[in-house]
Amino acid sequence: MKKVNLMKMSAVSLAILFSQGVMANEPWSQDRQWLFGDWNGKRQQLEDQGYKFTASIMSQAATNIDGGYNDNNTTTVASQLTLGANFDLNKIAGWNDTTAAIMITKRDGNALTNERIKDPRSTTLGNSQEIYGRGKIWRLTQAWVKKGFDDNKVQVKVGRMGMSDDFNSSQCEFQNLLLCGGQLGKSIGSIWYNWPVSVWAANVKYQFAPEWTIGVGVYEVNPDDIKTQSASDGFNLGMNNVQGATIPVELAWKPKLNGLPGEYKIGALYSTAEAKDIKTAGKVHDGKHSFWFNSQQQLTQRGDDSKRGLYVGFNAVFNDKATTFVQSTQQLAFWYKGPFDSRPADEIGLGFARYDVNNRARDKEIATDISRGYFSYDPIASNYVPIQRSELNVELNYTYQWSPAVMIRPNLQYIHQPAGVKEVDDAWVAGLSVRVNF
Question: Care to name a GO molecular-function term for this sequence (predicted)?
């Protein structure tokens, strides 16, 4: 079967719908919830009965304007198709406070960061297209059941899920990878699997006070879950290659400061899987650990609309220095919802994010180059290892929310020291994200 690029699929779909836009049901109206409509009322009827179906396509284009390892201008497009269903089992089967979900995803396309921005010999840190990665294959991204107890103060979730679905989760108002979503998967991806990967897992959340919740989970560490060689890898359900478990604990506080909502989380994890020492060859540790802090706070409110106003988010991750290449990450982001009265659902975003490479890993890179006779940066030698330090990502964007069904987000990104290599020119990238909910 021929491979079909998801961007081409979405373009054809949009063209067909545009040609029908003059017909009844107004597919392009700004209050349109789904591009394919309400199925003559059947969709809302099914949702009222407990069945909610979702389908969306996201595409992220990126063009290098200036700088980077290779400054020959090009445009790459990454894309993602998501198909899902949520089930309210109270409505369907009379099971109180019980829900379930299933979701599959398909990623495609290429990454500008890999092709133009970073030195190809260096370990990838950031990415100007956050939906790129984990293979161009179909994946089972969610398949879980969640049950509430004690008026939903206690919630137990079991099945296949990504780790940042419930721990170290964060806002995603940007196209740049480190500015979007949970941070741990970007720095310890060998044991912390984010979307679109799922693993066998279970977690418990306990709301012990109106503003306070504590959670703990157990997630398998199984390299088979992140394989990308064959189409079946995305649906691996076996546990023959499980190497241990990642155990996160997180405390969340959801206050209202000056009447405006916020969320503050501190967390830690321990992985029981053996971990190689980042500097000393042959040395193995019994496990590894990380700590994190996530926060999001609404700072202002515009008029009577509680959703409009200025928001800020700050996230930080601190990883085990003995076993991790990226020692820490920091993210500071601002976004303003509803900047114009005529566009109450639009947003303006500005974010800053940084990767810090472990100095023990850097010492190993330097020692390797000296052993090969290199004492300064060599731009072309295949066996030279670029010395990596820190990388800074900045993004400015505008989110044009045409309707709940169509989102368009042009953005401008600046990457300082791509992949942490100071000899590579700082890069400017123009991006465009488009999401369509069908």
Answer: porin activity
